[in-house]
Each structure stands twice: as structure tokens, then as C-alpha cells.
Amino acid sequence: MTDIAALESALPGIKIETNPQIVKQKSRDFFWYSPVLKRQLDHVTADAIVTPTTESEVAATLAACFDLDIPVTTRGSGTGNYGQAMPLSRGVVLNLAELNAVKAIRIGSVVAEAGAIMADIDVATRAHSNQELRLHPSTYRTATIGGFIAGGSGGCGSINWGGLRDPGNVIRTRVLTMEANPRVLDVTGDELARVCHAYGTNGIITEVEMPLSAAYDWIDVLVGFDDVIDAARFAQNLGLQDGLLTKEIAAIGAPVPYDYFLRHQKFLRRDMSVVVTMVAPQAMSAFEAFTRRARAEIVYRSDKASDEDLKNLPPAYELAWNHTTLRGLRVDPTVTYLQTLYPHPHSLERIEAMVKLFGDEVPVHTEVTRFDGNIVSFGLPIVRFTSEERLNEIIRLHEENGVPVFNPHRYTLEEGGMKQSNPVQLAFKREADPKGLLNPGKMIAWEDPNFDLTSDKMYLFPGLEPA
Ligand code: FAD
């Protein structure tokens, strides 16, 4: 049981919230995207929320929790959608929302505290020198930079820069260890793999240095197609245009755009598949020519939109990535989704094969990105959920047909990722979190090294209290 009184007396002057309703609200993320995780995690809550405002307050919190054996689960904005930020063993949620200063801007890089919201970082870097972050998730306006590095993978900008995993897309993180006297480590180069996408299981990121690129007034464009494969092909070919600068390219199959993009509905038909893209202003005439050659139809462009539309319509990136699913869930709370890869050079054939296999049960949603130097389509297809058995069957059929699935219905690092343990992250956990107090239950290699990841069984963390 968490000794809140002892924690409070160890941390005078640091904000500690124990109101059960607020604690529960801040213990949740977007786990409910998955009907599987919703069933398992809906009751999960911490005992207290601690909100430090400086790095030394973070260190004091970690030292006190180490001393009192209290588990610590870090939270940025809680927009992760695999239950990554949920405290499976209760304890403390370490809320970094108020550790949010932008500390330095140079040509090519920015230094910010981990709790800074990505859109806020870009406001500062644009004002300073017309630069912006290379990559951001579609939760740009709400998610923190630390949460993106610890829990995300890529997003807008990945068409040019690849993902967070690619060397150069994170320059440095400053990390605190979970020990009696937390150490401060500056992590760079290959060592970044220790803490990037580790769900805060082996260190707390307090500060990051990220690369910047030139900022543009990106034009949001929707292109309509009668056939979903034509849309996917257009998206893939657009990604191959080396000189035509875009920041986002997604292909979304009918009837998803019309049914779920409610504020854009007047531009769409129900049988229309859509490519959602962001184009640099100087590339717009080349883009128009490219679209004409493909006999495709521009149905919306923000540079020609009315003031009323500009005020009311969400930005294009909030139609893409996991926002497509969010818009679906708002209209039909029974849908869910998958994360897939249509490997190069057979992306289009694999997408076509999935359309034949599943039709409207799994409507197409591809995100075109640069991946190991190639232009590759990832998938975030909506799934019309009927049962967990059928969901597992859909996953199996994808994999049997050469379409790997990164299962978003699992809360552990291994099952949601490459289905193997990460020795680098495990070794760093041994060093930086010897008591295993950081985000318990999320790293199988630490909790149960004998668990058979090939068994097809879902790992169930024993510390997860039953509902
Ligand atoms: P949180 O959800 O608070 O945390 C994420 C994980 O990181 C948790 O395990 C948490 O414990 C850990 N963590 C947080 N901060 C720290 C820290 N400072 N140090 C150590 N560990 C930490 N993801 C993408 O990659 N691309 C997308 O385009 C994308 N689109 C999304 C759209 C929607 C609508 C939703 C709901 C999710 C989307 N996601 C996407 C997932 C998620 O938004 C991103 O990963 C986001 O960057 C997480 O940021 P956050 O601040 O909300 O992190």
C-alpha cells in the first residue's frame, strides 16, 4: 500500500493530488481505443499524482518513492493508446505537464523540457528562426515531446525523415535514474535506444534536444478517388516525388472519410476514397500537375478555403494517423484499429490483398513514410470489431499474408512491438531501476524472462489487480 502521508512529508512544497476522481482521470490514457485493453485496464488507477515543476523536484520525487518502495508511472499528456501510461501497480503517477520550458533554440535544434507540448515548441522555434520539429504525431496540439519519445514512433514529417527510431531524429535526452540518489545522465548516439520507446520503464526523461527543419505554411489538401487502390497508389507515388515537398501523405478508403470526417463531409461523397496530404506552398503547382497526370480530383485545399472553413475545419494531420481512428470512434464507438506494415517493394500488392480478404470489415488507411531509405506504406486500418477471437484471426491473416502487425491491443513493450525482448533496454533497467519501480508490468523481459513470446498467449501482469 502506498504510504501517502510519508510521501507528503518527504516532499514538502511539491504538488501531490490524492482526490480519487482526479487521480483516476490522470491515471488514464487512450487505452480504450482497444476493446481488449478496455476490458483489462478500465479499473486501473494510481494512489496519487505528483506534479513537479523542476528537474530537482523530479529527482526528489524519485528518491522518496525509491525509499518508500512506491511504483512510479510517468505521464506526459496521457495520449498514448496502448495503456502505456497506466499505473498497473498503483503507486504514483509522475505528471510532467508543468516541466515544460523551451530552453534553447539554435539553427537546426531545440532544447526543451520533457513536458513541453510539441505545438508550443514550434510556436517558439517559428518565432525565433522560422524552424519547426521534423516529426510530430497527430496529437501535436496536446502531446508532450517526452511522451512522444518514450511512447510514440513517428507521424507528420515521417515522409521526409523516417521515424523516431532513425539515428539523428533525437539528438539528446537527459535522463534521471530511479535510485536512492537519482543520477542525471546525458544520453546521445546509440545509447538513445535505451530510453526511446521504453514507456518510461527504465528512466525519466527530463529534457530533450531535437533536430529542426525549415518551417512552411503547409497547405492541407484532400484528393478524391473512386477506387481505394488508386488512392493508395497515388499516395505511394506522391511519396516518391523527391522534389515535391510534402509533410504528410495518407490514403483512407471509402466510406471512412465521408462517414467519420464530419466537418469535411460537404467536400466528399460516400463512395470516395481520399488522400490527405500537406504540401509546401512552393510545391503546389507541381502538386497540381502531378494530380492532373494521375487524373485525380482535388476536393479541398486550405489555401483556397473560405474564412469560415478555415475557422471550423481541423488541420489535415488531425484526419490522419490515429486521429482517423479517433474520428471513427466518435461516430461508432464499436470500431477499433490495427497497426500494420506493407513491406517494400510489395506495399501495393499487399494492400490490395488485404482489401480482397477483408473488404469493409477492415477499410484501408495507409500512411506513406520513409523507412530505411525506401518509401513505404504503413497501415492504421479501422477494424469493425465483432469479437476478440475475430480480431486475433484478422491479425493472424495479415501476418500469414506477409503484412506484419504491431499489435495495439497489448500493453507490454514486447507484444506491441517486434515480439522480442530488447536487451539494451533491459540492461539499462537493471542499472537505472534496480528495484523495478518504474512503470511496472510493461516490460515482460524484466517481469517474467521465461515468458514465451511465440506462444500466442497474451501476457497478463500478475501485479495488475483484478477489477
Ligand atoms: P503519454 O501518453 O503521457 O506517455 C507515453 C508513454 O511514455 C508512457 O509509457 C509514459 O509512461 C511514458 N512517458 C511519458 N513521458 C515520459 C518521460 N518524460 N520520461 C519517460 N517516460 C515518459 N503516436 C505516434 O507516434 N504518431 C502519431 O501520429 C500518433 N497519433 C495519435 C493520435 C491520437 C488521437 C492518439 C490518441 C494517439 C496518437 N499517438 C500517436 C500516440 C500518442 O499520442 C503519442 O505517442 C504521443 O506522442 C504521446 O505523448 P504523451 O505526452 O501523451 O505521452
Account of the protein in words:
The protein is α+β, with helices and mostly antiparallel strands and 467 residues long. Among the domains are: 102-214, Uridine Diphospho-n-acetylenolpyruvylglucosamine Reductase, domain 3 (2-Layer Sandwich); 219-400, 3-Layer(aba) Sandwich (Vanillyl-alcohol Oxidase, Chain A, domain 3), CATH 3.40.462. 31% of the residues lie in helices and 21% in strands. Residues 29-30, 73-81, 84-85, 96, 114, 137-139, 143-144, 146-148, 150-155, 199-200, 204-205, 321-323, 326, 439 line the site of flavin-adenine dinucleotide.
User: Could you give the count of β-strands?
Assistant: 19
Strand order of the largest sheet: 14-11-13-12-17-18-16
**Which small-molecule ligands are present, each listed once?**
flavin-adenine dinucleotide
Instruction: Give the C-alpha Rg.
Output: 22 Å
User: How far apart lie the N and C ends?
Assistant: 17 Å
CATH architecture of the domain at 219-400: 3-Layer(aba) Sandwich
Task: Briefly note the structural class of the backbone.
Answer: alpha+beta
Strand residues, percent: 15-25%
